[in-house]
């Protein structure tokens, strides 16, 4: 699978998985702006944004839920191995 296809699938799966999290630090609407995977698919940087959210608390909550989110990815995206998820503030990222 091409990196663009993997990134599109990860964006879709993570958007719905994050929306289902029941953590008070995660606002109702979190946007997965984009996902960048490394060449070996070992790491996926997930850039997120949320209107008026406490971003450090949101990133902490997502990191805390990393295991659950990686299992969702493993269940829904056909890959040899599931990349490690790393969450970043979309506002801090260069394009």
TrEMBL record:
Keyword Cytoplasm carried by entry: yes
Compartment list: Cytoplasm
InterPro entries referenced in this protein's UniProt entry, alphabetically: KH_dom-like_a/b, RbfA, RbfA_dom_sf
Record keywords, A-Z: Cytoplasm, Ribosome biogenesis
Coarse class of the protein's main subcellular location: cytoplasm
Pfam families associated with the record: RBFA
Function: One of several proteins that assist in the late maturation steps of the functional core of the 30S ribosomal subunit. Associates with free 30S ribosomal subunits (but not with 30S subunits that are part of 70S ribosomes or polysomes). Required for efficient processing of 16S rRNA. May interact with the 5'-terminal helix region of 16S rRNA.
Subunit structure: Monomer. Binds 30S ribosomal subunits, but not 50S ribosomal subunits or 70S ribosomes.
Family in the record: Belongs to the RbfA family.
Name of the molecule in the record: Ribosome-binding factor A
Species in which this protein is naturally found: Deinococcus aetherius
């Amino acid at each position: 699978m091409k990196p663009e296809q993997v990134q599109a699938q990860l964006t879709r799966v993570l958007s719905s998985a994050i929306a289902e999290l029941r953590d008070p630090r995660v606002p109702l609407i979190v946007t997965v702006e984009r996902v960048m995977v490394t060449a070996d698919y070992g790491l996926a940087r997930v850039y997120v944004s949320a209107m008026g959210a406490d971003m450090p608390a949101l990133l902490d909550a997502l990191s805390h839920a990393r295991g659950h989110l990686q299992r969702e990815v493993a269940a829904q995206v056909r890959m040899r191995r599931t990349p490690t998820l790393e969450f970043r503030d979309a506002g801090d990222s260069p394009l």
